[in-house]
Amino acid sequence: MSKTVPASFDEKDFNWKVPIGGEGHSSPVLWGDKIFLTANDAGRDGAKRQVLCLSAKDGSEIWAWGEKYKPHHINDKFNNFASATPVVDAERVYLSWTTGDSREVVALTHDGDLAWRISRAGFDDTDHGSGASPILAE
Q1: pTM here?
Q2: Cβ 57 vs Cβ 111: under 8 Å
Q3: Distance CA 14, CA 125 (A)
């Protein structure tokens, strides 16, 4: 058992803490000095979700990429529209999410530009929403 991993964390243990626009259930992903995470904002201007890139040093926002989407039924007690954890490699950040009538896989550059998108129509509307995180192979 490791003696360097604490069993609990208090604010005194944080290096920094920043608010994000909206909420998300994904885990943050670290690559070098950048942290990538997703957030969902169901505000007055319509549903929008985004990928955030934050500085690992101080939490400042480096960039945000987002788009509006069509909400659909989910179990919002345990899920939201930014539930899937992104995966990252040296060139891209990859996301998987649902739009209400399809499932999408999106790739962004480390600078926040859209590299490509694949959309598959016919998403099954279930309580589980879009919580399946992508993985990289080869």
Answers
A1: 0.81
A2: no
A3: 38
List Cα–Cα distances, 43 to 10, 47, 74, in angstroms: 30, 6, 17
Q: How confident is the model at residue 55 (pLDDT cuts 50, 70, 90)?
A: very high
User: What DSSP string runs through 50-119?
Assistant: EEEEEETTT--EEEEEEEE-------TTT--TT-SPPEE-SSEEEEEEE-SSEEEEEEEETTS-EEEEEE
Return the DSSP state at 45: T
What b-and-e string marks burial along 83-110, b requiring 16 or more CB atoms within 10 Å of the CB? bbbbbbeeebbbbbbbbeeebbebbbeb
Give the up-direction half-sphere exposure of residue 123: CA atoms within 13 A in the CB hemisphere: 24
